Amino acid sequence: MQIKIELLIAVLLVGISHTSLNAQRKDTDAKISIANNVKSATEGREKVSDANIRIRYAFNAEDMADKSTWIDEGQLKIAPDMTDYSSYFIEVNEDSLANWFNTHGRNVAYPPARWLGGYNRSKWIEYQYSQITTKDGVLTEWATMPRELDSENLYYTENLPLFDWQIEDEVAEVCGYECLKATCHWRGRDFTAWFTPDIPVEYGPWKFGGLPGLIMKVADDEGIYTFEAVAVENGSFPIFAPRGNKYKLSTRDKVWKLQRALNEDYLKTTGHSVFTDMTFTKEITSRRHPYTQLELE
């Protein structure tokens, strides 16, 4: 009996480890243009609204206690007239860089964006470098592209996505809140969400929403993508217009296909077979990276 129990525990541990290792990591040759951060830091950001609640989420964290293993720390800002989901890591970075310029001036060499946290922080991934806003029933994704396509930032709009959630009886605690379980199939994946009726808003991280309470945690059933709340804050939180260069109107299908191609083979997508990384003065050859998007269709 003792051997059977130990074997069962080992199997469970392997299963948990396998799930975490399945999570989509930053495995790409695409890097973000530092010019985007500098532009926001030196020219300021345009405030478009004020939120009175902010929820911060760990995105694809290997270790919830170690932010260096998170792909991003996202932030959902909820204002009376709109919502905004963006990167908290990036906003903190831009604020720090702006303070540095205010102290040292703008005509001297500035330090690298060393305040940006998270796993492979110099690399690009759309979930960190896209800003999702909702207003009047319309969702907009403002997609910031990596360095070679820095002048080709895109945006598109769609009606708020419809999620056919099935609310279940299970209860769990997330970030100190009692949450109910809900499941749905959406755009090619099965998702499980945990939401709290104690915060009666129909929003969540990224594009997720449509439940009678704030979504505190949501993940696909394969463990590839996970958002989990780590802080719920009340106060005054400015919502800024999209950062960086101007954005061109596109469609969800075109943006979705481009984001996938950039993750899979950045150099081929941008028309290079070989690219010289000036930081390390070495050549990087076009190569394909394993990648699976959150939205499969």
Overall body shape: globular
Low-confidence stretches: 1-20
Radius of gyration: 20 Å
Mean of all residue-level pLDDT scores: 85
Tell me the fraction of residues in β-strands, as a range.
Answer: 25-35%
Give the total of beta strands: 14
Order of helices and strands: HHEEEHEEEEEEEEEHHEE
Structural class: alpha+beta
Q: How many helices does DSSP assign?
A: 5
**Strand order of the biggest β-sheet:** 7-8-9-10-11-1-2-3-4-5-6-12
Task: Explain how this protein is built.
Helix 2 (34-43) crosses helix 3 (88-104). The chain is an alpha+beta fold and 297 residues long. The strands form two sheets. It has a twelve-stranded mixed β-sheet with strand order 7-8-9-10-11-1-2-3-4-5-6-12. Strands 13-14 form a two-stranded antiparallel sheet. The model is unreliable at 1-20 (pLDDT under 50). The protein is built from five helices and 14 strands.
